[in-house]
Design brief:
Mean pLDDT: 77
Number of strands: 2
Shape: flat
Distance between the termini: 55 Å
Low-confidence stretches: none
Strand content: under 5%
Oligomer: single chain
Helix content: 40-55%
């Protein structure tokens, strides 16, 4: 097994299972492992992963991705000559968003969520 494998562990250790919490992006499936690794290695890694998917609409992971997008647009488009200047830019952006109480405007209403996700929840009359 190559040392560059993401799950490289000495054989003497117990073989843990790794839980992942991906969103619904299609790259977070075992098929993607077969694109990146030889079949035997992909199968070995896949056996050790558990995928726990978030809801398609309105998950906390979506909020985190939106905030990273804001940071990337605000801080990575310009030139940052060193890590310290990038850190200052990120801190300034975070401080500004916190000071203005930046919020996410959800478009999925409770009624829409109930209609779209009805199969995931117990029925309520």
């Amino acid at each position: 097994m190559p040392a560059s494998s993401p799950l490289h562990m000495p054989a003497s250790l117990p073989k843990p299972t790794f839980s992942t919490l991906p969103d619904k992006l299609n790259t977070y499936r075992t098929a993607s492992l077969y694109e990146a690794f030889p079949p035997a290695e992909a199968r070995r890694i896949a056996k050790r992963l558990e995928f726990h998917y978030t809801p398609k609409h309105g998950s906390w992971l979506n909020m985190a991705e939106m905030e990273f997008s804001v940071l990337a647009r605000a801080c990575l488009r310009g030139r940052n000559p060193d890590a310290e200047s990038l850190e200052r830019a990120v801190n300034a952006t975070v401080s500004e968003r916190n000071a203005t109480a930046a919020a996410i405007n959800w478009r999925l209403t409770a009624r829409d969520a109930t209609r779209k996700l009805h199969r995931l929840y117990a029925c309520h009359s």
